[in-house]
Specification:
By secondary structure, this protein is of the alpha/beta class. It is built from twelve helices and ten strands. The strands form three sheets. The protein has a four-stranded parallel β-sheet with strand order 4-3-5-6, sandwiched between helices. A four-stranded parallel β-sheet has the order 8-7-9-10. Helix 7 links the parallel strand 7 and strand 8. Helix 2 crosses helix 5, helix 5 packs antiparallel against helix 6 and helix 7 packs across helix 12. It is elongated, with a radius of gyration of 27 Å.
Length: 306
Amino acid sequence: MRETIKFLTVLLLGAFLCVTACHSPKTTSQETFFTWEDSYNRHIQLDTAPQRIVSISPAITEVMFLVGAQDKLVGISDFCKYPPETEKITKVGGMHNINFEVLLSLHPDVVLIGSMISQKDVDAIEKMGIPVICIVEESSLDGMAEMMEVVGKITQCEEKGRAEAAKWKDKITERRANAPAPENRKCIYYVVGFGDGGDFTAPKNTHIEEIIELAGARNAGDSLTGWNISREYLFKINPDIILVRNEDKEAFQSRYPYTLLDAVKEGRVYGIESGWIDVVSLRNMNAVDYIAEICKPTWTPKATKE
């Protein structure tokens, strides 16, 4: 009898513990995987790690390849063209003409966007039940390090994201430390736009200016507050070096009145890959290295005319 009572006691205790465990909070499945205040100041919460991701940002797409999370990319924007492997990934439209039908058919766990997506499109995606996280392409190269860390966390590549962010910061620190003194920097004019529609270049406090300065040169538009530059001012500064997109180089250097600039007459016009410089991305460091290389010739920069 005594043994029977002991058995029933143990049985009841086990049943009680089982019921208690079944109704207690689950320490794993109910833990929040990711929380963050995104670039639009929205509180973001992902309960589970996303396995199917759509990126509508070239910079984010590049970072996902960098941290080794490319296998989770099921869709990208039409503008995500680097690295070459992106050709094989389904396209969901551009920044302002997202194909929501294709997007929905991919069954993404999350959509990662940059600064070019409208609030209307964000709302449309969220109404389909798909979480949206905005990671703005920062206006400075330093901001790319944060993007690497955040994307690393979202994609479960946190260690790789931190490591790449640290390497990126080290590169920037090294280039700043080795940059020549301001008075020894060559003046570089980057042709953003030219011709009958007007002349445009990067003004101060832009990522393009930062690229030029990291390369050890001086931005010709460093005193401008807007992207427009008058031809009078362009000829006044008479830049030492002119940078222009590869596809525009021949047209620019053969067009009057740019043919009168010393840099054009003396063969100091250089083409550059637009993807290296026009938007903030990992390839900005390619632009830094390229500009630093073309600044190596022994000719000395001219002083800015007053």
